[in-house]
Write a structure and sequence with these properties.
The protein has 12 helices and no strands. By secondary structure, it is an all-alpha fold.
């Protein structure tokens, strides 16, 4: 996803959906929120699971400070349980991070080849690793691999944004979100960014909530 493609897709969606158009007119085109491909982003996403983005960012920054550079699979495995706990990893996320690291070192996950695969194949490969579920795989597809038509139905901010922007009677569940997202193909990743943008500007106006 490039800025040009984001602009074109946003314009297309706004021409088809008056509610999304209102968001863009009020808050502007959403940021790209792109991330680098690779291990760094997957570790960051594991840290983001079920905590605030600010908390995940603080833990990741402490990890980088501890190591003196971005983490590698080998470095994660060399850190002791106590060290990872001191950095801010939960017990569960220590396990997930180590399983991911070992899978890469053993050659069971070829992280550099994911960009060559289809969206579904990427999800299948990532979700073989315990601790990487649909949400983590979807966000990796959207923000690291820049896929244009990913719809992360497990994302709370997306559900809240959709509820408010589309004036739904209640917060949509994942099945509801799946149905809602069909109208925005083949640019569901951009629709998601618009709804996130609304959420961060209107519901939780805190600077820097989404990582870059």
């Amino acid at each position: 996803m490039t800025k040009g493609r984001l602009l074109r897709a946003t314009s297309k969606l706004c021409s088809q959906d008056a509610d999304l158009e209102k968001v863009v007119k009020k808050y502007g085109v959403p940021p790209l929120w792109n991330r680098p491909e690779g291990f760094r982003t997957l570790i960051y996403l594991i840290l983001e699971q079920q905590v605030s983005l600010a908390s995940a960012r603080a833990t990741f920054e402490k990890l980088v400070s501890w190591l003196g550079s971005d983490p590698t699979p080998k470095e994660i495995l060399l850190l002791s349980f106590e060290e990872l706990r001191a950095i801010g990893f939960s017990r569960q996320k220590i396990s997930y991070s180590r399983l991911l690291s070992q899978a890469i070192i053993d050659g069971n996950l070829s992280i550099n080849d994911l960009g060559k695969l289809s969206d579904q194949a990427v999800k299948s490969e990532l979700m073989k690793i315990k601790g990487i579920g649909p949400w983590t795989a979807d966000i990796y597809l959207m923000e690291a691999l820049s896929r244009p038509d990913v719809w992360p139905t497990g994302d709370l901010a997306l559900a809240v944004g959709a509820e408010k922007v589309k004036k739904l009677a209640s917060r949509p569940n994942q099945n509801d979100l799946n149905k809602l997202g069909e109208q925005w193909r083949p640019f569901r990743s951009v629709a998601a960014r618009i709804l996130w943008h609304y959420y961060l500007c209107e519901i939780r106006p805190q600077p820097g909530e989404k990582p870059s």
